[in-house]
Amino acid sequence: MARRRMTKGVPWSDRLLDTVIAIAMIGVAIVTLYPFLNVLALSFNDSTDSVRGGITVFPREFTLKNYSIIFSFDGLVTGFKISVLRTVVGTILGLISASMLAYTLARPDFQGRKFVSTYLAVTMYVSAGLIPFYLLIKDLHMMNTFAVYVLPGLVSAFNVFVIRSFIDGIPYALQESAKIDGASDFAIYWRVVLPMATPALATIALFLAVGQWNSWFDTFLYNGSSDHLTTLQYELTKVLLSTTSGNNGDYRNTNITQVLATVSPESVKMAITIVVTVPILLVYPFLQRYFVRGLTLGAVKG
Amino acid sequence: MKAVSARNPDVSLSAKTGKSNFWKVAFRNRYLYAMSLPFVVWVFVFSYYPLWGWLIAFQRWKPGKSIWEQKWAGLDQFKTLFRDDMFYQVMRNTLAMSVMGLVATFTVPILFAVLLNEIRNMFFKRAVQTISYLPHFVSWAVATSIITRMLAGENGVVNDFLMWLGILHEPIQWMGKEHLFWGIVTVSDAWKETGWNAIIYLAAMAGIGPELYEAAKVDGASRLRQIWHITLPGIRSTVIVLMILSIGHLISIGFEKQFLLGNNLVRDYSQVLDLYSLQYGLQMSRYSFGTAINIFNSVVSVILLFAANGLFKRIAKESIM
Question: Cβ separation of B35 and A100 shorter than 8 Å?
């Protein structure tokens, strides 16, 4: 009864507030989405026509030429393969390492538990920095190898803690009863804990995959001179930095920038941007419900 | 395998209560050791061992020799660093962008979360939220490509829009104005991360008991008053914990944005600490000098983290440690 009375006499100030909020939120959605749509339209528009301006969210003179140009670069095709490969390998290895460590840390009867969690937590705050790390990679002969994409960052303390706090939430009795049935600790991990931790694993898989797909700095630093190990993101940064006036690195002698000088760089740049972005757009809406949960878990404990 | 894992106990737990007992438990834990020790070694190699490399900041490092054969230089590298005018410019840029970023991350996402939380149409709320964290998932390379397109002097949306509104009479070369660079980085960051950063506040708001709002309604509190007296206090401790963590990262703000969005025209305003160590240390083969910058960065970060933690412990009775 009381509730009905409240809703009936909605004061005008509340209605005004609702309208203002709705308009503001639509504004946020437009500001976020429009740049992507604009770039998409430009990537499908004829490059000489684009120079005239006025393209919004639909192409005016539709063409696939920009895409056919970029896929004729060897660098981009290699980059695509390597990007996919590092994403797959890096995600799988990262999931195995994080879930195994998380499982051992969630076991109350594990002796090394306290030590290992402090040992990992320290790495979240103290890092040696760029140059000592660079020298380490050099000493390990990991320059110009594929391994440098997946091995150095194999164990991430943050990911371990997110999965650990999820496992902590699973009733321990399940593990104990498996133990009584004679399962080894590894079997418990594989058959009991992993299947139940799927939501946390999905979140971490998303974080790992996005991180792998998006990174370019390791290519720049360690594999910049090996054409066969280039990544999509690195190819995009090369194009970006070559079109701004003489930027931070020397990108002049790479084939993609030479070809760009002969066609309109702007449209090709837009097409590469879309190629790099699309795989992410395809996965993230489906994993949404997982990462919202995973992120809040991580923040509570991490 | 069993022997190896049992021989490497990291912990001297229950050392006094009987050694035989310890080994017995260690043996029972053998699978757990086998599953964690390889990664413990891994972390040692890639996170702890490089700290050893800090020694070269106290040397005059030359390639081709081991760390013991290098010439020792005491604090010379640090003296050079603190005497370098560039260092102060870099610190100014780092702190300016960092503080602007801090203010932006603790106002825009909170405001966004508060407004989104007030929407009662679930479909609309969901749609806006899904769109809002889209940019978080794209790389800074993609973001830079999009941002430079939007801000372009020719046919850039921002210029077109401002001219249509009559605010501008001719297009501005946004990316080429050094005084605008800090602002562009801050706004770009807000564009990219607001939706993502709001997730955690929305989760905290979802945890506030509905009976509080009911009681406030009965007392005749307006929606704005409810936001002020219930919603905002409800996310207070989340905000403080996140703030402590971000103050710890005040000077290690990364360099991706600055590296990609910057260009020669805005160099004096875009150079930050990590870029400084990359370009004036690594790329010039001045490894000792660059490492001195890295050490400065790490040490200041840890000090800031502890300071922020202590400060908030005192004034707000909240802490992370």
Answer: yes
